Sequence to fold (178 residues):
Amino acid sequence: MNPISIQPATLNDVATLTWLGETTFIETFAHLNTEADMQQYLAENFSVNQVTQELMDGNNKFFLAFWDKKPVAYMKLRLGPHPDQPQHTHALELERIYVLKDYLEKKIGATLLQHAIVFGQNLGYQTLWLGVWEHNERAINFYKRWGFTRYGSHLFILGSDPQTDILMKKDLTTTTRL
Fold:
């Protein structure tokens, strides 16, 4: 039996999403950024109020991943248009996908990404796109293994630090459904 399960997040999951968001972001980026920039970013993006607003926005879809019924990862998809999305295609953004450090080797990220692909295909999206920090080699390599290709970059502000995100996309029309 597969110990991984994925469920859509609801307003009842605000505390879990807030905790997972803060914890996974710190685990992934704290050692590469200043404490002040991290604290500012966390306060702006992972407060209970902010997560609640994002959950109530119909253009956002959150999913929680569980390992043996314990929440260990989450994903945020954005359905609405965005200026950075690939042009001339119906595109779905993979805005966030984070897994607790202790569960990184358990294929939870892959399970979430497959879920995003099927979700997008079922809604008629042609492209799945994302921005990933240029220094996050682990994530860049993960996306490349899944067939994402680079198509540009954009500025991402972490606290007061301007950083560069690589924009990557995947064609969902040629991806086989499971």
Observations:
- The first strand starts at residue 4 and ends at 8.
- The domain at 4-171 is CATH 3.40.630.30 (Aminopeptidase).
- The radius of gyration is 16 Å.
